[in-house]
Amino acid sequence: RKANIGVVGLGVMGHNLALNFERHGYWVAVYNRTAEKTRNMIASAGPERRLIGTFSLEELCANLERPRRILLMVQAGQAVDEMITSLRPFLQSGDILIDGGNSYFQDTERRHETLKGAGILYVGMGISGGEEGALWGPSLMPGGPLQAWESLAPMLRDIAAKAEDGEPCVDYIGPRGAGHYVKMVHNGIEYADMQLIAETYDLLKRALGLSAPQLAEIFAEWNQGELQSYLIQITAEVLRKIDEETGQPLVDLIMDEAQQKGTGKWTSQNALDIGAAVPTISAAVDMRILSALKQERVQASQVLRGPTQTFRGDPEHLLHLTRKALYASKIIAYAQGMGLLRQASQEYGYNLKLDRLAAIWRAGCIIRARLLSDITLAYQREPGLVNLLLAPVFREALASHHNALREVLKIGLDLGIPMMGMSTALAYYDAYRSARLPANLIQAQRDYFGAHTYRRLDREGIFHTQWT
Ligand code: NBP
Q1: What is the pTM of this model?
Q2: Which residue's CA lies nearest to atom 30 of ligand 1?
Protein backbone atom coordinates (compact mmCIF):
# COMPACT_ATOMS: atom_id res chain seq x y z
CA ARG A 1 0.00 0.00 0.00
CA LYS A 2 1.02 3.64 -0.47
CA ALA A 3 2.03 5.85 2.41
CA ASN A 4 0.20 9.08 3.32
CA ILE A 5 3.42 10.95 3.96
CA GLY A 6 7.16 10.55 3.47
CA VAL A 7 9.82 11.68 5.93
CA VAL A 8 13.34 12.36 4.66
CA GLY A 9 16.03 12.65 7.34
CA LEU A 10 15.72 10.39 10.35
CA GLY A 11 17.73 12.43 12.84
CA VAL A 12 16.26 13.22 16.23
CA MET A 13 13.39 15.25 14.80
CA GLY A 14 12.55 13.32 11.63
CA HIS A 15 12.54 9.98 13.45
CA ASN A 16 10.15 11.22 16.12
CA LEU A 17 7.86 13.11 13.75
CA ALA A 18 7.53 9.97 11.63
CA LEU A 19 6.50 7.99 14.73
CA ASN A 20 4.06 10.75 15.69
CA PHE A 21 2.32 10.54 12.28
CA GLU A 22 2.28 6.74 12.55
CA ARG A 23 0.74 6.82 16.02
CA HIS A 24 -2.12 8.87 14.58
CA GLY A 25 -2.96 6.18 12.05
CA TYR A 26 -1.01 7.39 9.03
CA TRP A 27 1.20 5.26 6.85
CA VAL A 28 4.69 6.79 6.76
CA ALA A 29 7.44 6.08 4.25
CA VAL A 30 10.86 6.94 5.67
CA TYR A 31 14.22 7.62 4.05
CA ASN A 32 17.62 8.62 5.41
CA ARG A 33 20.88 9.36 3.60
CA THR A 34 22.67 6.81 5.78
CA ALA A 35 20.65 3.63 5.22
CA GLU A 36 21.57 2.15 8.58
CA LYS A 37 19.37 4.68 10.40
CA THR A 38 16.40 3.63 8.28
CA ARG A 39 17.04 -0.06 8.97
CA ASN A 40 17.42 0.58 12.71
CA MET A 41 14.24 2.59 12.84
CA ILE A 42 12.18 -0.07 11.07
CA ALA A 43 13.72 -2.85 13.16
CA SER A 44 13.18 -1.11 16.51
CA ALA A 45 9.64 -0.01 15.67
CA GLY A 46 8.56 -3.58 14.88
CA PRO A 47 6.61 -5.09 11.96
CA GLU A 48 3.14 -4.08 13.20
CA ARG A 49 3.84 -0.35 12.73
CA ARG A 50 2.60 1.57 9.67
CA LEU A 51 6.15 2.35 8.49
CA ILE A 52 7.72 1.69 5.08
CA GLY A 53 11.52 1.82 4.98
CA THR A 54 12.89 3.05 1.66
CA PHE A 55 16.46 3.17 0.47
CA SER A 56 16.42 5.57 -2.46
CA LEU A 57 14.48 8.74 -3.15
CA GLU A 58 12.94 7.06 -6.18
CA GLU A 59 11.69 4.24 -3.98
CA LEU A 60 10.38 6.75 -1.44
CA CYS A 61 8.43 8.67 -4.09
CA ALA A 62 7.07 5.46 -5.62
CA ASN A 63 5.67 4.51 -2.22
CA LEU A 64 3.67 7.71 -1.66
CA GLU A 65 0.03 8.36 -2.52
CA ARG A 66 -0.55 11.31 -4.85
CA PRO A 67 -0.31 14.21 -4.48
CA ARG A 68 2.82 13.28 -2.59
CA ARG A 69 3.54 14.83 0.77
CA ILE A 70 7.19 14.78 1.75
CA LEU A 71 8.61 16.21 4.96
CA LEU A 72 12.31 17.10 4.81
CA MET A 73 13.97 16.96 8.24
CA VAL A 74 17.62 17.36 7.29
CA GLN A 75 20.17 19.85 8.53
CA ALA A 76 19.29 23.41 7.47
CA GLY A 77 21.35 24.96 4.67
CA GLN A 78 23.03 23.14 1.82
CA ALA A 79 21.57 19.73 2.71
CA VAL A 80 18.06 21.06 1.97
CA ASP A 81 19.09 22.30 -1.49
CA GLU A 82 20.83 18.99 -2.21
CA MET A 83 17.77 16.99 -1.20
CA ILE A 84 15.48 19.18 -3.31
CA THR A 85 17.72 18.68 -6.34
CA SER A 86 17.84 14.91 -5.81
CA LEU A 87 14.09 14.61 -5.22
CA ARG A 88 13.09 16.88 -8.09
CA PRO A 89 13.13 14.20 -10.89
CA PHE A 90 10.64 12.04 -8.94
CA LEU A 91 8.15 14.82 -8.12
CA GLN A 92 5.14 15.87 -10.17
CA SER A 93 2.95 18.94 -10.32
CA GLY A 94 0.71 19.14 -7.25
CA ASP A 95 3.16 17.31 -4.96
CA ILE A 96 3.87 18.97 -1.62
CA LEU A 97 7.40 19.34 -0.31
CA ILE A 98 7.69 20.51 3.30
CA ASP A 99 10.92 21.72 4.87
CA GLY A 100 10.53 21.28 8.62
CA GLY A 101 14.08 22.31 9.56
CA ASN A 102 15.24 25.67 10.88
CA SER A 103 15.86 27.11 7.43
CA TYR A 104 16.56 30.79 6.90
CA PHE A 105 13.31 32.32 5.63
CA GLN A 106 14.99 33.92 2.61
CA ASP A 107 16.22 30.46 1.53
CA THR A 108 12.62 29.26 1.78
CA GLU A 109 11.44 32.20 -0.34
CA ARG A 110 14.04 31.27 -2.99
CA ARG A 111 13.18 27.54 -2.98
CA HIS A 112 9.48 28.34 -3.16
CA GLU A 113 10.11 30.53 -6.21
CA THR A 114 12.24 27.87 -7.95
CA LEU A 115 9.69 25.07 -7.49
CA LYS A 116 6.61 27.16 -8.24
CA GLY A 117 7.09 26.92 -12.02
CA ALA A 118 6.90 23.12 -11.90
CA GLY A 119 3.70 23.25 -9.84
CA ILE A 120 5.41 21.78 -6.76
CA LEU A 121 3.91 23.22 -3.59
CA TYR A 122 6.74 24.21 -1.28
CA VAL A 123 5.96 24.58 2.40
CA GLY A 124 8.43 26.10 4.88
CA MET A 125 7.30 24.83 8.26
CA GLY A 126 8.77 25.95 11.58
CA ILE A 127 8.67 23.19 14.18
CA SER A 128 9.25 23.76 17.87
CA GLY A 129 9.24 21.44 20.83
CA GLY A 130 12.52 19.58 20.47
CA GLU A 131 12.81 15.82 20.56
CA GLU A 132 9.89 15.19 22.92
CA GLY A 133 7.65 17.66 21.14
CA ALA A 134 8.31 15.98 17.79
CA LEU A 135 7.15 12.67 19.24
CA TRP A 136 4.24 13.73 21.44
CA GLY A 137 3.07 17.02 19.93
CA PRO A 138 5.07 19.97 18.61
CA SER A 139 3.97 23.48 17.79
CA LEU A 140 3.88 23.74 13.98
CA MET A 141 4.22 26.89 11.87
CA PRO A 142 3.57 26.04 8.21
CA GLY A 143 3.85 28.73 5.55
CA GLY A 144 3.54 28.47 1.77
CA PRO A 145 0.71 27.94 -0.72
CA LEU A 146 -2.74 27.84 0.90
CA GLN A 147 -3.61 24.84 -1.28
CA ALA A 148 -0.82 22.85 0.40
CA TRP A 149 -2.10 23.82 3.84
CA GLU A 150 -5.59 22.59 2.96
CA SER A 151 -4.17 19.20 2.01
CA LEU A 152 -1.93 18.96 5.09
CA ALA A 153 -4.17 20.49 7.75
CA PRO A 154 -5.90 17.30 9.04
CA MET A 155 -2.59 15.45 9.47
CA LEU A 156 -0.81 18.40 11.04
CA ARG A 157 -3.71 19.03 13.44
CA ASP A 158 -3.48 15.38 14.50
CA ILE A 159 0.22 15.40 15.33
CA ALA A 160 0.40 18.91 16.85
CA ALA A 161 0.38 19.66 20.57
CA LYS A 162 -3.03 20.54 21.99
CA ALA A 163 -3.52 23.70 24.03
CA GLU A 164 -5.49 23.60 27.30
CA ASP A 165 -8.73 24.27 25.42
CA GLY A 166 -8.00 21.32 23.12
CA GLU A 167 -7.07 23.46 20.13
CA PRO A 168 -4.19 22.05 18.02
CA CYS A 169 -1.05 24.18 18.05
CA VAL A 170 -0.86 24.60 14.29
CA ASP A 171 -2.35 27.04 11.83
CA TYR A 172 -1.64 28.43 8.40
CA ILE A 173 0.94 31.15 8.97
CA GLY A 174 1.14 32.89 5.60
CA PRO A 175 2.62 32.71 2.10
CA ARG A 176 6.17 31.79 1.01
CA GLY A 177 8.70 32.01 3.85
CA ALA A 178 6.21 33.17 6.50
CA GLY A 179 6.37 29.92 8.50
CA HIS A 180 10.13 29.97 8.77
CA TYR A 181 10.11 33.70 9.51
CA VAL A 182 7.77 33.16 12.44
CA LYS A 183 9.85 30.22 13.70
CA MET A 184 12.95 32.41 13.56
CA VAL A 185 11.29 35.08 15.72
CA HIS A 186 9.98 32.37 18.06
CA ASN A 187 13.60 31.36 18.58
CA GLY A 188 14.66 34.99 19.05
CA ILE A 189 12.07 35.34 21.82
CA GLU A 190 13.33 32.05 23.24
CA TYR A 191 16.89 33.47 23.38
CA ALA A 192 15.63 36.54 25.25
CA ASP A 193 13.55 34.49 27.68
CA MET A 194 16.50 32.20 28.46
CA GLN A 195 18.82 35.17 28.98
CA LEU A 196 16.38 36.85 31.40
CA ILE A 197 16.07 33.63 33.40
CA ALA A 198 19.87 33.24 33.43
CA GLU A 199 20.30 36.80 34.75
CA THR A 200 17.78 36.13 37.49
CA TYR A 201 19.64 32.97 38.45
CA ASP A 202 22.96 34.85 38.46
CA LEU A 203 21.66 37.68 40.62
CA LEU A 204 20.10 35.39 43.23
CA LYS A 205 23.14 33.14 43.27
CA ARG A 206 25.63 35.98 43.66
CA ALA A 207 23.61 38.34 45.88
CA LEU A 208 22.16 35.73 48.22
CA GLY A 209 24.74 32.95 47.83
CA LEU A 210 21.99 30.40 47.18
CA SER A 211 22.90 26.88 46.04
CA ALA A 212 21.53 25.31 42.89
CA PRO A 213 19.06 23.07 44.79
CA GLN A 214 17.82 26.10 46.77
CA LEU A 215 17.36 28.03 43.54
CA ALA A 216 15.54 25.03 42.06
CA GLU A 217 12.90 25.34 44.79
CA ILE A 218 12.46 29.05 44.07
CA PHE A 219 11.96 28.51 40.32
CA ALA A 220 9.61 25.59 40.99
CA GLU A 221 7.52 27.85 43.21
CA TRP A 222 7.53 30.67 40.64
CA ASN A 223 6.30 28.15 38.09
CA GLN A 224 3.00 28.01 39.99
CA GLY A 225 2.18 31.65 39.28
CA GLU A 226 2.21 34.21 36.48
CA LEU A 227 5.68 33.05 35.34
CA GLN A 228 4.41 29.53 34.68
CA SER A 229 6.22 28.28 31.57
CA TYR A 230 8.18 25.42 30.12
CA LEU A 231 11.47 27.33 30.43
CA ILE A 232 10.95 28.09 34.14
CA GLN A 233 9.92 24.48 34.75
CA ILE A 234 13.02 23.03 33.10
CA THR A 235 15.20 25.62 34.88
CA ALA A 236 14.00 24.17 38.20
CA GLU A 237 14.69 20.65 36.98
CA VAL A 238 18.15 21.58 35.68
CA LEU A 239 19.08 23.27 38.99
CA ARG A 240 17.93 20.23 40.96
CA LYS A 241 20.05 17.74 39.01
CA ILE A 242 22.99 16.27 40.95
CA ASP A 243 26.02 14.90 39.10
CA GLU A 244 26.26 11.25 40.10
CA GLU A 245 30.05 11.07 39.95
CA THR A 246 30.89 14.13 42.03
CA GLY A 247 27.71 14.59 44.07
CA GLN A 248 27.66 18.26 43.07
CA PRO A 249 24.87 20.12 41.26
CA LEU A 250 25.50 19.38 37.59
CA VAL A 251 24.80 22.97 36.54
CA ASP A 252 27.79 24.15 38.60
CA LEU A 253 30.07 21.87 36.58
CA ILE A 254 28.90 22.99 33.14
CA MET A 255 31.23 25.30 31.19
CA ASP A 256 29.78 28.82 30.94
CA GLU A 257 30.08 29.14 27.17
CA ALA A 258 26.72 29.35 25.38
CA GLN A 259 26.56 28.10 21.82
CA GLN A 260 24.16 29.19 19.10
CA LYS A 261 22.95 27.82 15.82
CA GLY A 262 21.98 31.15 14.32
CA THR A 263 18.24 31.71 14.66
CA GLY A 264 18.68 34.36 17.39
CA LYS A 265 21.32 36.15 15.35
CA TRP A 266 19.10 36.06 12.25
CA THR A 267 16.27 37.60 14.29
CA SER A 268 18.46 40.53 15.37
CA GLN A 269 19.92 40.97 11.89
CA ASN A 270 16.53 40.96 10.25
CA ALA A 271 15.10 43.34 12.86
CA LEU A 272 17.86 45.81 11.97
CA ASP A 273 17.14 45.30 8.27
CA ILE A 274 13.46 46.14 8.56
CA GLY A 275 13.85 48.76 11.30
CA ALA A 276 12.26 47.06 14.30
CA ALA A 277 13.79 47.47 17.77
CA VAL A 278 14.43 44.17 19.56
CA PRO A 279 17.16 45.16 22.03
CA THR A 280 16.49 42.35 24.50
CA ILE A 281 16.75 39.68 21.80
CA SER A 282 19.97 41.30 20.57
CA ALA A 283 21.27 41.47 24.14
CA ALA A 284 20.67 37.74 24.46
CA VAL A 285 22.74 37.12 21.31
CA ASP A 286 25.46 39.50 22.55
CA MET A 287 25.62 37.75 25.91
CA ARG A 288 26.05 34.38 24.20
CA ILE A 289 28.91 35.90 22.19
CA LEU A 290 30.51 37.32 25.35
CA SER A 291 30.03 34.03 27.17
CA ALA A 292 32.00 32.25 24.45
CA LEU A 293 35.06 34.42 25.26
CA LYS A 294 35.74 32.31 28.32
CA GLN A 295 39.54 32.60 28.31
CA GLU A 296 39.50 36.34 27.71
CA ARG A 297 36.97 36.81 30.49
CA VAL A 298 39.03 34.79 32.93
CA GLN A 299 42.06 36.99 32.17
CA ALA A 300 40.07 40.23 32.30
CA SER A 301 38.58 39.21 35.65
CA GLN A 302 42.11 39.50 37.10
CA VAL A 303 42.68 43.08 35.96
CA LEU A 304 39.39 44.92 35.46
CA ARG A 305 37.94 46.42 38.62
CA GLY A 306 34.31 46.42 39.69
CA PRO A 307 32.37 47.01 42.91
CA THR A 308 33.41 44.97 45.94
CA GLN A 309 30.31 45.42 48.07
CA THR A 310 28.00 42.60 49.04
CA PHE A 311 24.21 42.51 49.25
CA ARG A 312 22.93 43.67 52.63
CA GLY A 313 19.19 43.85 52.01
CA ASP A 314 16.38 41.51 52.97
CA PRO A 315 16.66 38.21 51.02
CA GLU A 316 12.90 37.60 51.04
CA HIS A 317 12.26 41.05 49.63
CA LEU A 318 14.87 40.51 46.90
CA LEU A 319 13.16 37.25 45.90
CA HIS A 320 9.84 39.04 45.70
CA LEU A 321 11.31 41.85 43.57
CA THR A 322 13.21 39.49 41.28
CA ARG A 323 10.14 37.44 40.48
CA LYS A 324 8.30 40.60 39.47
CA ALA A 325 11.30 41.93 37.53
CA LEU A 326 11.54 38.70 35.57
CA TYR A 327 7.88 38.83 34.67
CA ALA A 328 8.05 42.50 33.65
CA SER A 329 11.13 42.01 31.48
CA LYS A 330 9.61 38.91 29.93
CA ILE A 331 6.49 40.82 28.87
CA ILE A 332 8.71 43.52 27.34
CA ALA A 333 10.83 40.97 25.45
CA TYR A 334 7.70 39.30 24.03
CA ALA A 335 6.38 42.74 23.05
CA GLN A 336 9.59 43.32 21.07
CA GLY A 337 9.23 39.97 19.29
CA MET A 338 5.57 40.57 18.48
CA GLY A 339 6.45 44.08 17.27
CA LEU A 340 9.01 42.59 14.90
CA LEU A 341 6.39 40.16 13.55
CA ARG A 342 3.97 43.00 13.00
CA GLN A 343 6.56 44.98 11.07
CA ALA A 344 7.67 41.96 9.01
CA SER A 345 4.08 41.17 8.14
CA GLN A 346 3.84 44.55 6.41
CA GLU A 347 7.35 44.43 4.95
CA TYR A 348 6.99 40.99 3.35
CA GLY A 349 3.22 40.87 2.83
CA TYR A 350 2.85 37.88 5.15
CA ASN A 351 -0.51 38.97 6.54
CA LEU A 352 0.34 37.45 9.93
CA LYS A 353 -2.42 37.02 12.50
CA LEU A 354 -0.65 37.76 15.77
CA ASP A 355 -3.42 36.27 17.93
CA ARG A 356 -3.12 32.99 15.99
CA LEU A 357 0.66 32.92 16.40
CA ALA A 358 0.42 33.43 20.15
CA ALA A 359 -2.32 30.77 20.25
CA ILE A 360 -0.19 28.10 18.57
CA TRP A 361 2.69 28.85 20.94
CA ARG A 362 0.53 28.04 23.97
CA ALA A 363 1.62 24.39 23.95
CA GLY A 364 4.24 22.16 22.36
CA CYS A 365 6.91 24.79 21.80
CA ILE A 366 9.85 25.91 23.91
CA ILE A 367 8.38 29.34 24.76
CA ARG A 368 5.03 27.93 25.87
CA ALA A 369 3.89 29.90 28.89
CA ARG A 370 0.83 31.12 30.72
CA LEU A 371 1.67 34.57 29.39
CA LEU A 372 0.84 33.40 25.85
CA SER A 373 -2.84 32.98 26.71
CA ASP A 374 -2.94 36.64 27.74
CA ILE A 375 -1.11 37.64 24.55
CA THR A 376 -3.61 35.64 22.47
CA LEU A 377 -6.54 37.38 24.18
CA ALA A 378 -4.95 40.81 23.84
CA TYR A 379 -4.65 40.44 20.05
CA GLN A 380 -8.09 38.84 19.74
CA ARG A 381 -9.64 41.82 21.48
CA GLU A 382 -7.63 44.34 19.48
CA PRO A 383 -6.20 42.87 16.23
CA GLY A 384 -4.69 46.24 15.27
CA LEU A 385 -2.79 46.64 18.56
CA VAL A 386 0.38 48.58 17.64
CA ASN A 387 2.41 47.40 20.63
CA LEU A 388 1.67 44.61 23.08
CA LEU A 389 2.66 46.92 25.96
CA LEU A 390 -0.46 48.99 25.25
CA ALA A 391 -2.90 46.10 25.83
CA PRO A 392 -4.78 46.84 29.08
CA VAL A 393 -3.65 43.57 30.72
CA PHE A 394 0.04 44.31 30.10
CA ARG A 395 -0.23 48.03 30.80
CA GLU A 396 -1.52 47.10 34.24
CA ALA A 397 1.02 44.33 34.79
CA LEU A 398 3.85 46.74 33.98
CA ALA A 399 2.35 49.49 36.12
CA SER A 400 2.57 47.15 39.09
CA HIS A 401 5.92 45.52 38.15
CA HIS A 402 8.19 48.15 36.56
CA ASN A 403 9.44 49.46 39.88
CA ALA A 404 10.57 45.98 40.88
CA LEU A 405 12.54 45.79 37.62
CA ARG A 406 14.19 49.14 38.46
CA GLU A 407 15.03 48.00 42.00
CA VAL A 408 16.51 44.71 40.83
CA LEU A 409 18.63 46.47 38.20
CA LYS A 410 19.95 48.92 40.82
CA ILE A 411 21.02 45.98 42.98
CA GLY A 412 22.65 44.29 39.98
CA LEU A 413 24.51 47.53 39.13
CA ASP A 414 25.73 47.94 42.71
CA LEU A 415 27.03 44.40 42.77
CA GLY A 416 28.55 44.58 39.27
CA ILE A 417 26.38 41.79 37.88
CA PRO A 418 25.80 42.05 34.12
CA MET A 419 22.07 42.22 33.38
CA MET A 420 22.02 43.17 29.73
CA GLY A 421 18.70 41.49 29.01
CA MET A 422 16.79 43.09 31.87
CA SER A 423 18.35 46.50 31.43
CA THR A 424 17.55 46.61 27.70
CA ALA A 425 13.99 45.54 28.51
CA LEU A 426 13.57 48.44 30.93
CA ALA A 427 15.24 50.87 28.53
CA TYR A 428 12.88 49.77 25.75
CA TYR A 429 9.90 50.30 28.07
CA ASP A 430 11.11 53.73 29.16
CA ALA A 431 11.93 54.75 25.59
CA TYR A 432 8.57 53.62 24.27
CA ARG A 433 6.69 55.52 26.97
CA SER A 434 8.74 58.73 26.43
CA ALA A 435 6.78 61.38 24.57
CA ARG A 436 10.13 63.11 23.99
CA LEU A 437 13.45 61.43 23.37
CA PRO A 438 16.79 63.23 22.93
CA ALA A 439 16.68 62.59 19.19
CA ASN A 440 16.25 66.37 18.73
CA LEU A 441 19.90 66.71 19.73
CA ILE A 442 20.92 63.93 17.34
CA GLN A 443 19.08 65.67 14.50
CA ALA A 444 20.85 68.92 15.33
CA GLN A 445 24.24 67.17 15.36
CA ARG A 446 23.46 65.53 12.00
CA ASP A 447 22.48 68.84 10.54
CA TYR A 448 25.63 70.47 11.99
CA PHE A 449 28.15 68.05 10.48
CA GLY A 450 26.31 66.77 7.43
CA ALA A 451 23.58 69.30 6.53
CA HIS A 452 21.09 66.45 6.95
CA THR A 453 18.26 68.90 7.82
CA TYR A 454 15.63 68.58 10.55
CA ARG A 455 11.95 69.18 11.21
CA ARG A 456 10.64 71.50 13.93
CA LEU A 457 8.02 71.01 16.61
CA ASP A 458 6.59 74.51 16.14
CA ARG A 459 6.51 74.83 12.32
CA GLU A 460 5.94 72.71 9.22
CA GLY A 461 8.79 72.23 6.76
CA ILE A 462 12.37 71.01 6.42
CA PHE A 463 15.09 73.18 7.96
CA HIS A 464 18.84 73.58 7.78
CA THR A 465 20.91 75.90 9.97
CA GLN A 466 24.38 77.45 9.53
CA TRP A 467 25.51 76.32 12.98
CA THR A 468 28.78 78.30 13.07
P1 NBP B 1 20.09 15.69 13.32
O2 NBP B 1 21.43 16.28 13.38
O3 NBP B 1 19.66 14.75 14.38
O4 NBP B 1 19.86 14.96 11.91
C5 NBP B 1 20.27 15.53 10.74
C6 NBP B 1 19.68 14.75 9.56
O7 NBP B 1 20.12 15.42 8.38
C8 NBP B 1 20.15 13.31 9.45
O9 NBP B 1 19.09 12.53 8.98
C10 NBP B 1 21.26 13.43 8.40
O11 NBP B 1 21.47 12.25 7.66
C12 NBP B 1 20.67 14.46 7.50
N13 NBP B 1 21.63 15.10 6.58
C14 NBP B 1 22.69 15.89 6.81
BR15 NBP B 1 23.32 16.31 8.46
N16 NBP B 1 23.29 16.31 5.70
C17 NBP B 1 22.59 15.76 4.69
C18 NBP B 1 22.71 15.83 3.30
N19 NBP B 1 23.65 16.57 2.72
N20 NBP B 1 21.83 15.12 2.57
C21 NBP B 1 20.87 14.37 3.16
N22 NBP B 1 20.70 14.29 4.48
C23 NBP B 1 21.55 14.98 5.25
O24 NBP B 1 19.13 16.91 13.19
P25 NBP B 1 17.74 17.23 13.92
O26 NBP B 1 18.04 17.70 15.29
O27 NBP B 1 16.76 16.15 13.72
O28 NBP B 1 17.31 18.54 13.09
C29 NBP B 1 16.81 18.51 11.77
C30 NBP B 1 16.30 19.91 11.46
O31 NBP B 1 15.28 20.27 12.39
C32 NBP B 1 17.36 21.00 11.56
O33 NBP B 1 17.12 21.99 10.61
C34 NBP B 1 17.12 21.57 12.94
O35 NBP B 1 17.59 22.89 13.06
C36 NBP B 1 15.62 21.48 13.03
N37 NBP B 1 15.07 21.47 14.39
C38 NBP B 1 15.67 20.77 15.38
C39 NBP B 1 15.11 20.77 16.65
C40 NBP B 1 15.74 19.99 17.78
O41 NBP B 1 15.30 20.17 18.92
N42 NBP B 1 16.71 19.13 17.53
C43 NBP B 1 13.91 21.46 16.90
C44 NBP B 1 13.30 22.13 15.85
C45 NBP B 1 13.90 22.15 14.61
P46 NBP B 1 22.61 11.19 8.07
O47 NBP B 1 21.98 10.30 9.08
O48 NBP B 1 22.91 10.50 6.80
O49 NBP B 1 23.77 11.99 8.61
Answers
A1: 0.97
A2: 101
